[in-house]
Every structure is written in C-alpha cells, then in structure tokens.
Amino acid sequence: MAVDSSLSPLGPPACKKDAKALKFIEETTRNADPVQERVLAEILARNAETEYLKRYKLGGATDRETFKSKLPIISYEDLQPEIQRIANGDRSPILSAHPISEFLTSSGTSAGERKLMPTIQEELDRRQLLYSLLMPVMNLCVPGLDKGKGLYFLFVKSETKTPGGLLARPVLTSYYKSEHFKTRPYDPYNVYTSPNEAILCPDSFQSMYAQMLCGLLERKQVLRLGAVFASGLLRAIRFLQLNWQQLVNDIRTGTLNPKITEPNLKSCMDGILKPDPELADFVSKQCGDENWDGILTRIWPNTKYLDVIVTGAMAQYIPTLEYYSGGLPMACTMYASSECYFGLNLNPMCKPSEVSYTIMPNMAYFEFLPYDPNSASRGDSMTTRLVDLVNVEVGREYELVITTYAGLYRYRVGDILRVTGFHNSAPQFHFVRRKNVLLSIDSDKTDEAELQLAVENASKLLRSFNASVVEYTSYADTTTIPGHYVIYWELLVKDSANSETESVDSVMSQCCLAMEESLNSVYRQGRVADNSIGPLEIRVVKSGTFEDLMDYAISRGASINQYKVPRCVNFTPIMELLDSRVVSKHFSPSLPHWTPERRR
C-alpha cells in the first residue's frame, strides 16, 4: 500500500508507520474536548473505590461538574500523608485502583527532599506512545534521518527503595531501564550510536566515556546530536575537552581505557573498538586546536540539528550551544515531567524563542489556573474557576493543573504556560517558567525561601569577624561548564581591624560550602554524583552597591515605595553594575554532603 499523504495536514509522512502516527495526532487534537471528557470519565470510573475519591463523596460520578465541585485543587504537600503511607508499604487503593508500581522522583523538592510521584505500570505505555510520535513529526521537517544515527548522551541516575520496597527513581531512569526501551524494535529513523550497555551503566564517567567514544567512532554516521537538557550536551562537550587525549589513545590503539571496568560495558566496547590511526589523528587535530568554535560540526560534519530542551531555564545555554555547534538549529521536541507527559512540538525546527508545545488530550485530564504575573493573588485557586483545555485564551498565562491515571487529582504542577495558538482544537503553549524558581543550572530548582535559608546559615560563619550580610542577590552563571550559582553579598563589617585577608578568604570559602550544604538534595546530587553543577561562588561587593542598584531601578521607573531587592538577576546592565563593584570572589572549596536518599 502506498503512503497516503492526505492523512496528515501536517505534511507528507515519510513511511506507513509515520502516516499512522500523524493521523493519530490529527484525530486526537481535532477531538480534544471529547477525548478529555473520556479521559476524565475513565480515571474517575476506575478509581471510584479509592480512599481519596471516596473521601470527597463523588459517589461514582464521572462527569466534569461533579468532579470540579467536589475535588479540591492540591499541591504536593497536600498529598504527602498519602504518598508516605504508600512509600511505607500500604498497598490498599489509596490514590489508584491499579497498584503503584514505583515512585518517580521529581526534580522539584519539598522540605529539601525530592518529591515522590506515584505511577502505575500502564503509564509506561502512555509515555511510549508520546515518544513514538516525535520522529514522525521530525521526519516532516528533516528528510533522510533513516540514513544515519543519533548521538544522544543519555544516562541513568541513582535509585533507592522506599521502606515499603517500592523503587524511587527519575522518570527517564525508569524509562531507560524498562523493556519498552531495552527491547525497542529496530527503527531506521531512530538509531543511536550509544549501545544500551553504555546508557545503562550506573557510573556517570564510564557511561559518558563510552557514549563519547562510540560517537567518535561513528562520526560520519551522526545526523543529530542530543541530550535531554541543553546543559547535558554542554557537559558532554566539556567532558570531551578534558578527556580527548585518552579517547584518541583508545581509537589509535584499539584498546579500551582501563577506567572502563563495568563488565557489561567493557565486554560491549571491546567488541566495538578497533585500531583507527587515521580517525585518531583527525580527532587529535580538532580537539588540540584552542579554538572550539563550531567543534560539533567539525567532528560530526553531517549533523543536521541539536535535539535538546532549550526552553525555560535552559534558554540561558543557547548562546554557548550556538558557539560550539556553529549555529546548528536546536529542536525542542516534547514537554514532559515526572508527574505526566504532556505533549509535543509540531514545529520542532522553529527558533527556540518560538517553541510551542501542543498538549495531547489523551495523556491526562488538563485544567488551567489563570495566572496574572502582575496580580498579588496570581490566580488564587480557592476563588478562581479553572479553565478546561479547549477553553484557554490565546495570549493568556496559566498554571497547569492535572488529573492522571496514576492517582493525582487536580494537582498543581507548578509550570506557568502562555497560550500561543491552537492545532485543531488542542491548544499550544509556550513554557514560561517554573513557578517560584529562582535558580536552575540543570535539573535543580532553588526557590527564594531556600536561597534565603542558605544565606542565613552561611552568614552565621561571619560572626567571628563581627560581620553580617546586609543584602544579597544571585544568578545562574552558565558561561562556565558546568554552570554554577553566583551569590552577591554586601557585608557590614563592624571591626575591619579584625579581618586578616587569609582568614577572611578561608571563612568566605566556608560560607560557600555552608550555602551548598543548605541547598536541596537535587542540587547536591548535581554537584556530587552528576557533575552537572560547579562550585558555588560568592562575590563580595562594595558597601552601598545595593543602594546603587535601587537607584538604577528607580531611574527606570520602579516605585521607591514598592521597590524590593531582586533575589535573582539576569538583566545585563544590572549584572554589569554588580560586577563593577566586586571586591573579592570566593568558591566552595569542596563537595557538599550527598548520599542517595533513604526514604523514611
């Protein structure tokens, strides 16, 4: 049977399988409201006998009006007692009639620990379905992807068990370790250079080394380069900068770096690696050049695009990626979280600033809390009526609220989205930001309260010098690889005669470490285990700097009565003002404490 391009208004599909996927997208988005109605009814019907729904006396009702009138809008803290019971081994139907198969650890935190998101086995099928739609859409934009491979840097992270025996791990670790991924059928449009053994190796150095080595060995086959986040791809580039000589030696001699000791990975790589002096000379010449401008396209000349998330906090990495890639397009393909997979980008080759995700109505039941960034209440969920998926308004911002098959009901995800348009009757959203997040380098998310506590804890060390922190602000510095937190401190020193330079420098370095020790486990894991975040830096500024900052803000129209010191800055003139007043810089001297969390 010939491929029928009329099946998809998106464009002519590349193959029969793509035609089926594109048809599914069209039918699902065209019938967004009926699909949403069906999804909610399915969720409520199957979970009618759960403790949570019985508590709110739904009485088996599956209609929207009853659901909205009886169920509250909730946050993670509201669910913590139920989640803790499940984690401790209670197998009764508390949130879901289907057994909770594991917990997915969110990059957000509650009281400094990762959030635990319950999930059920069938959610893997739903995630796999969304993954299966990505390449059919990409094939519309970039032809010939079946003629080569993708070099993707994918990793598993540490997992723990709750007291009740359930696994707790990141959503991508869950997916990569599932049979859906490990035994995925061959698809010529979606072949990786990295073998499963490299992706699944728990040691981050060995995993990265093997994936980079495989990418170099097949450099002419690589048509797309990617990682989950932009920060991950930059980390891979930095890894190449630090390790290219050893990689070249492996390629030249055909013998594997002795640091690769994981048995499955070592056996796999021994079967792949053969001496290739010509390739070794080429890599050595490229990496030995001090100028790394366009290094990605020099080493992998057939690369058509970068597949990385560069929306939200990741947008800060765009200029650096453009430098290393020689201006390759950056594709953001999907929108997902630990709580739920939401949708995909139907125009993946658009500019990063124009990325919009189409919500797929079959993934969960979606509601939207109107969000006004200029309002003090910013969409009080107790008084504001939530808007259904198909009724959102173009140009308005909303906070995403979800009801999932796995037992989250009217749950506030914390993402702020702006409606940019519709595909058929399904809305398309631009990701604006995570609510309340000040600083983020990788998967870490630090809010204002957490930053304040860290400053308070660290500043206690200044007492021996009769000094204190008068004011502070911060920013995420992504000009370094990996990126790191920069905190500007203005100090009040009551007795400067007691301040020997060496002693002060030592104490300020300890202040950096004390701040890191106060930050959440996601941040500390990024520092210790993932090497995705660099040492925290404190920049001490001259006395009066923050008054100058206020004067600048007022000169630009801020009200002197309502002015508050911003706890995070990213506006270039403000950062230039702060940096022009810096009198000393200090870095964390060692790694903060981190061990895989043990669930109480």
From TrEMBL:
Residue ranges occupied by any GH3 middle domain in the UniProt entry: 357-434
Superkingdom of source: Eukaryota
Alphabetic keyword roster: Ligase
A Pfam family annotated for this UniProt entry: GH3
Coiled coil: none
Domain GH3 C-terminal: 450-571
Family named by the database record: Belongs to the IAA-amido conjugating enzyme family.
PANTHER family xref list: GH3 DOMAIN-CONTAINING PROTEIN, INDOLE-3-ACETIC ACID-AMIDO SYNTHETASE GH3.1-RELATED
Protein name: Probable indole-3-acetic acid-amido synthetase GH3.1
Native source species: Prunus mume (Japanese apricot)
Lineage: Eukaryota, Viridiplantae, Streptophyta, Embryophyta, Tracheophyta
